[in-house]
Amino acid sequence: MSAMLVDVVSVSKRFTPSVSVGERIAAWLGSPVETRTVHAVDDVSFHIRKGEVLGLVGESGCGKSTLGRVIAGIHPPSAGRATIDGLPVMGEGRKPLKTTTRIQMVFQDPFASLDPRIRIGETIGEGPLAHGLVGKADVHAYVAQWLAAVGLPAEAADRFPHQFSGGQRQRVAIARALAMQPDVLVCDEPVASLDVSIQAQIINLFLKLRRELDVTMLFISHDLGVVRHISDRVAIMYLGRIVELGPTAEIYDRPRHPYTRALLDSVPKLVTGSDELVTFKPIQGELPSPLSPPPGCHFHLRCPSAQARCRTDAPRLDAAAHSVSCHFPLAAGE
Fold it and tell me: Nearest Cα to 161, choosing from 126, 191, 122, 199?
């Protein structure tokens, strides 16, 4: 079994918007000011082994991207810690650490994450130059090396982001991340904004880079098909919490949490030899607001199996290889 590389321990992340000028004036005049706190991530713990791909799945608004940014050192956690090889990802007061270059992020929208005013070669080479990974005399060859690794010609270094297609821009974003020689890639919905045919190319590129570079990945997506194809293990997230975690085949074939089962059933499926060619069951109810998450199990408002205990006691993720956070987990085959 591979050694543990990334360790996430009891990480929580809350956002409290700053008070506006109008609210300050209202408070000065004696009116109460409502404090609005977004509970984006709530007491999450897991680990990622060296060389593995961990898929992170959940509905929009469940906190996947926020958790990825905490692990990448972009957001400081409100509680808990994220480490790589036992070293903290972020220091006190958001000070940069030696681990800064070891975790890099690939964002969903490459057009937004690339500076439109800077040529691609400078975009890829800027970080390695700043961190001493390459010298000025060798930076052009270094950039060409990583462009080739993602399937782009060396001449691409002289072009601007708007001169590329969406898939090519995402290849540039991947090259920029890899040029920092990271141990871990945090991929936040990296194919969501691309056409289906281009998605397949980028997924195959990730698989190729994993084989050749032995890079570890946290792959965040709402696309269950993509996650199943690329991941060794899968973590299911609901309203800031991990509700199920285990090997990919077991999660998809034998889900134990009612939310995982509902999530899988909500994916349209082709059924041959049936009057209904496409079948799916949408998840009932609405995702509660992270401004006011429900007590107990966060899923109990939408769970068909919820009982009185679920409304008051928050379940904990057990320590099994296929772990579940549920008072009444599903039996095999349900």
Answer: 122
137-160 tens-digit pLDDT:
999 999 999 999 999 999 999 999
How far apart, in whole angstroms, are the C-alpha atoms of residue 315 and residue 309? 9
CB atoms within 10 A of CB 173: 25
Phi, psi for 217 (deg, rounded to 5): -135, 140
At 194, the pLDDT band (50, 70, 90 cuts) reads confident
Q: Domain containing 294: what range?
A: 255-334
Give residue for tokens 């408002």. Answer: 301
Tokens of 223: 């696309």
pTM: 0.89
- Mean pLDDT check: name the lowest of 98-107, 110-119, 172-181: 98-107
Domain co-membership, 99 together with 175: yes
Residue 162 burial (CB < 10 Å; 0-12/13-18/19+)?
exposed
Query: Does 210 reside within a domain?
Result: yes
Cα separation, 114 vs 86, whole angstroms: 31
Query: Residue 65: pLDDT above 80?
Result: yes
